[in-house]
Amino acid sequence: MTPIKNTEKVGFSYNQLADPKFAFYDHSLVEAVKLSDVPTHRFFWLLSLCHTVMPEERRKPHYFFSCMSGNLVYQVQSPDEGALITAARNFGFVFQARTLETITVVEMGETKIYKLLAILDFNNVSFLFLFLVVRSPEGDLTLYCKGADTILYELLHSSCDSLKEETTEHLNEFAGEGLRTLVVAYKNLDEDYFQDWIRRHHEASTALEGWEDKLSELYEDIGKGLMLLGATATEDKLQDRVPQSIETLAKAHIKIWVLTGDKQETAVNIGYSCNLLNEDMEDVFIIEGSTSDDVLNELRNARKKMKPESFLDSDEINIQFEKSSKKQKFYLMSKQMGSAHIGVGISGQEGMQAILSSDDFFAQFHYLQHLLLVHGRWSYIRMCKFLKYFFYKNFAFTLVHFWYGFFSGFSAQIVYDEWFIMIPK
Q1: What is the pLDDT of residues 142-189, one digit of tens each?
Q2: How far apart are CA 306 and CA 11, in angstroms?
Q3: Which whole number is the average pLDDT over 397-403?
Q4: Which of 254, 234, 265, 263 is nearest to 349 (CA)?
Q5: How do the domains of the chain map onto residue ranges?
Q6: Antiparallel, parallel or unpaired: β 344-346 and 360-362
């Protein structure tokens, strides 16, 4: 949060485990925490419980981002989780320990142990970032969930409509500033229903066929009727010299694609901040369809506009807009623009997936500029000279043996010694 001029910083003297470097200026939120406001406390309960963070006292291992506050070190797989768990800690909801079956949280100085009953990390079927069911020390069953607003909004209870409208306004404001947003929600569960759901979950997870679709249906079923708590927004800073590097690569007529799961406003804002988009661009198209048919038509029109001379309606006849064909539609459109042959990952704080999927990787994005425009150019020149030399050498070598065949009766006898072909010159 940007500090307001002449506003005093909030004191966290009530929380002995707060980070002394943490600066916050919204006194109303802190007062709500002190007054034990139930929605506010439940919001921070969710942040302290709904995550995959591991607390440790030792130093961070390689390839993991460490979020350290006081003497407790959080090992997280992304800075977003680190920011949210640290925020909950500073407000008095300290995630302290985790086992396979329990989560320990210090809530306003009181230690509580929650029993972990079910957990679903982010996957390509549900598109929920995280979903878990815990039993509180008082015995209450609660489902906590955080994820994209486009998915969670479809699961909300009708009583959340007014809060949903207000939250949407905040999300649009956050996205316009280039912040990464998440929606958080919860649901109280009935004991009998949950036991039946656990049984069906076990059957689906052990099924030999179609287990992904069955699990997706189960998570959608238990998620119906969620109660909206609010939203979070975190800043995703670019690495140094990223805008300058992208601008230079664009001047070299190198095609650049950016795939993101952020809101459209966030993606556009980041696109301008990193010089991927600029005011001089013409014919910028944005896919805004709300149905499968609308998106399909917009992609078809965009592809036709890129290269109308190579567009064939016959390519689209048998394509149905399903999960597999979405990838096929995007592949067809990207093929018009040119496909990549070598994948280079960036080992940033969220770069593990890119590293695992790439052919090579390095630490900073701006290294790519030197790799392509300097070493890439040198490699291209070396390869051209080598191929040119290799072609003429083999042509001369083969032509001599061809003529010699008339004198040797085509007996495969060679003119030169075998080692001659290995000599560069």
Answers
A1: 999 988 888 888 889 999 999 999 999 999 888 888 788 899 999 999
A2: 57
A3: 84
A4: 234
A5: 27-235, 238-278, 372-422
A6: parallel
Contacts of 82 (CB under 8 A, 6+ apart): 53, 65, 66, 67, 74, 76
CA dihedral angle for residue 31, residue 144, residue 133, residue 125, rounded to 10 degrees: -160
Task: Identify whether the C-beta of residue 103 lies closer than 8 Å to the C-beta of residue 49.
Answer: yes
Residue type, 17: L
The tokens 């704080």 sit on which residue?
A: 349
Strand partners, 97: 104
| Listed residue (236, 67, 47, 73) closest to 130, CA to CA | 47
Q: For the chain, how many helices (H) and strands (E)?
A: 14, 12
Q: What are phi and psi of 255, to 5 degrees?
A: -75, 135
- Determine the 3-state secondary structure of 115 from DSSP: strand
User: Tens digits of per-residue pLDDT, 324-369?
Assistant: 455 557 666 666 556 767 777 887 666 566 677 778 888 888 888 8
Residue 5 confidence class, pLDDT cut points 50, 70, 90? very low
For the entire predicted model, the pTM comes to 0.69
**E strand or H helix at 10:** none
Tokens of 79: 């800075």
Q: What pLDDT digit, counting tens, does each position of 119-130 carry?
A: 876 555 455 567
3-state secondary structure 249-310: HHHCCCCCCCCCCCCHHHHHHHHHHCCCCCCCCCCCCCCCCCCHHHHHHHHHHHHHHHCHHH
Q: How far apart are CA 257 and CA 330, in angstroms?
A: 12
Residue 306 and residue 51: Cα distance in Å, rounded?
42
- Given this model, what pLDDT does residue 167 score? 93
The answer to whether 274 and 256 have CB atoms below 8 angstroms apart is no
Q: Which is it for strands 110-121 and 141-147: parallel, antiparallel or unpaired?
A: unpaired
Which residues have CB under 8 Å from 309's CB, separation 6+? none
Parallel, antiparallel or unpaired: strands 128-135 and 102-107? unpaired
- Which of 111-125, 253-267, 335-349 bottoms out in mean pLDDT, i.e. has the lowest? 335-349
CA separation, residue 312 to residues 297, 303, 309, 330 (Å) = 14, 10, 8, 16
Fold of 27-235: Calcium-transporting ATPase, cytoplasmic domain N (3.40.1110)
Q: Are 368 and 343 in contact (CB under 8 A)?
A: no
DSSP assignment of 352-400: HHHHHTSSEEES-TTHHHHIIIIIHHHHHHHHHHHHHHHHHHHHHHHHH
- Total residue count of the chain as it appears in this document: 425
